[in-house]
Amino acid sequence: MKRLRSLAESVYAQSVLKKLTCLPQHVAIIQDGNRRYAKERGLSVDTGHKLGAETTLNVLEWAKNLGIKHVTFYAFSTENFKRDSDEVDGLMELFVDKFTQMLSDPRVVDNKINVTVVGDRTLIPEHVLEKIEAVEERTQDFHEYFVHIALAYGGRNEIVDTAKRVVSAYRNGEITLDEITPEKITEAMYPAGDMPPVDLILRTANDRRTSNFLPWLANGNEAAVCFCVPTWPEFRYVDMVRALRTYDERMRS
Predict the structure, then answer these.
(1) What is the pLDDT, as a whole number, of residue 190?
(2) 206 an active-site residue?
(3) Cys bridge to 119: 93, 112, 152, 171, which one at CB 3.0-4.6 A?
């Protein structure tokens, strides 16, 4: 039955793709539902996060095969630091494990995916930051596809930090008031390679909010938004294709 369902979904996904006229170049994904998935199945929270991390690596390959050049994953927000310390510590160790895996994972290396982290690095533990920097250095010469991991990220914090940097530059005589433009603000934001405006925000687990995610690049660009029912560990290729259809329908309208 499972194999038959998979075949049916594959046929359906291909039929949807053939009808699309526009594909987003930057998809931002809010990976929600790891804890809910685990709780409903009597699993540990750590197990839920690990299963979600595998979905993330799968989506890397799907995005590449679909021709989506930029994908940003909302992996850990500044608010997430308020969670139980055991869960936070478990997530940090999971990040270490997955960033280590990315150093040699064919889904990253063979597909030449550039990996960068966007967020407040002063909040990230040193041993996690070391692995992040290793992955960024390993993939810095890859320019075919880009994956941005939002870690210790908060949209309002990003804007405030950016404002501080711009004000400092103005006070130091590095820029004039006339040079403070939307483009200059974008340049001053958290470094994450060439992050273009967001075309589509996708959130799993059917929670209908965008949670302070990339407000400058997404809301400023009036990005399309797709809320889908499956939790992140359950997220499938067909769900990804349906989200692309949402973007296509918005562009047509």
Answers:
(1) 80
(2) no
(3) 152
